[in-house]
């Protein structure tokens, strides 16, 4: 499978999972009629194939990376603010849902203009940093140092707790390993954390693979970032097609859209765009735009390969004609 197929599959998997789970968000497990495809309704009263904050924020992050030529944390925050205030990258033209940790970070950024704006408090461990993460991973997956540095930085813009950072680094490791060609089941049998060091305790249960032995009824709701990762890994571990995995994740209820969006990022990269049902591609909101953004991320990834990992942006366009020099580069964001 080509990288283009994998990149497109990951981004479409994210959006499809988000749209499948959206009607079930906040539903108690076993207290709803399962979904078998895109459906309307739910707390946001969306049309079939429309997605929520997970995909909107992922598109903000992806276009920031592409249009900035790399990591620009202020630009990322400004796009998230545009989404919140103006409905940028929203299917409905307005921001109809936002997590509490994300909202407080955007308000902090708006007031002080400082990045990272994420709350490091262990209590602030929502899944908003993880749910949108794929674009950063796709841009940097083949360079472990850049991958770790950018994943941490892009998570901390809004989510800086130990559990949030641990979850992002474990997820990024999994996606990069499948992109390298490792089998999904192998990756899920032995999850690892990028850099080898955890910040909190809770991620240990994911690293030990406990989720593989859990019954559906034993999984949490998924609003907490460790549970979201656990539920998504569980849905992928159970195997089957791309469609089956996404439906299994969405039909957990709870934070259904986000758990399915996270599962969709991983299984989408593994299976590729071609394995997403054609009828879903026709119904999925902004499908063509998502494909173009995935292709743009692949282009960025190829260009970044030419740079040492410590450079967080491509050279400015003007420097190509005048010859590049040090002033055209910015140092990487270091934690
Ligand atoms: Mg959502």
TrEMBL record:
Family annotation (InterPro entries): ADP-ribosylglycohydrolase, Ribosyl_crysJ1, Ribosyl_crysJ1_sf
Keywords from the UniProt entry: Hydrolase, Magnesium, Metal-binding
Record note on cofactor: Binds 2 magnesium ions per subunit.
Residues annotated as binding Mg(2+): 52-54, 255, 257-258
Keyword Ion transport: no
Cofactor: Mg(2+)
Keyword Magnesium in record: yes
Pfam families listed in its UniProt record: ADP_ribosyl_GH (PF03747)
UniProt family annotation: Belongs to the ADP-ribosylglycohydrolase family.
Name the record gives this protein: ADP-ribosyl-[dinitrogen reductase] hydrolase
Organism in which the protein naturally occurs: Marinospirillum celere
């Amino acid at each position: 499978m080509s990288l283009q197929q994998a990149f497109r599959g990951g981004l479409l998997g994210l959006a499809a999972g988000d749209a499948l789970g959206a009607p079930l968000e906040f539903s108690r497990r076993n207290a709803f009629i399962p979904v078998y495809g895109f459906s309307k309704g739910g707390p946001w009263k969306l049309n079939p194939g429309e997605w929520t904050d997970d995909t909107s924020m992922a598109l903000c992050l992806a276009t920031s990376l592409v249009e900035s030529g790399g990591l620009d944390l202020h630009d990322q925050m400004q796009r998230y603010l545009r989404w919140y205030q103006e409905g940028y990258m929203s299917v409905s033209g307005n921001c109809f849902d936002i997590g509490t940790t994300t909202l407080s970070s955007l308000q902090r950024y708006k007031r002080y203009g400082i990045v990272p704006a994420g709350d490091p408090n262990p209590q602030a461990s929502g899944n908003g940093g993880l749910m949108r993460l794929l674009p950063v991973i796709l841009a940097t997956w083949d360079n472990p140092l850049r991958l770790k540095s950018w994943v941490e930085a892009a998570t901390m813009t809004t989510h800086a707790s130990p559990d949030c950072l641990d979850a992002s680094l474990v997820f990024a490791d999994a996606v990069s390993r499948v992109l390298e060609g490792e089998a999904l089941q192998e990756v899920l049998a032995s999850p690892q954390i990028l850099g080898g060091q955890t910040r909190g305790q809770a991620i240990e249960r994911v690293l030990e693979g406990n989720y593989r032995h859990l019954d559906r009824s034993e999984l949490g709701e998924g609003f907490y970032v460790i549970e979201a990762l656990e539920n998504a890994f569980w849905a992928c571990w159970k195997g089957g097609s791309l469609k089956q995995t996404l439906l299994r994740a969405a039909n957990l209820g709870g934070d259904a859209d986000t758990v399915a969006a996270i599962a969709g990022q991983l299984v989408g990269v593994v299976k590729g765009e071609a394995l997403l049902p054609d009828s879903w591609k026709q119904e999925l909101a902004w499908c063509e735009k998502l494909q173009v953004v995935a292709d743009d991320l692949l282009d960025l990834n190829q260009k970044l390969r030419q740079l040492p990992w410590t450079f967080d942006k491509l050279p400015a366009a003007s420097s190509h004609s005048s010859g590049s020099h040090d002033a055209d580069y910015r140092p990487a964001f270091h934690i």
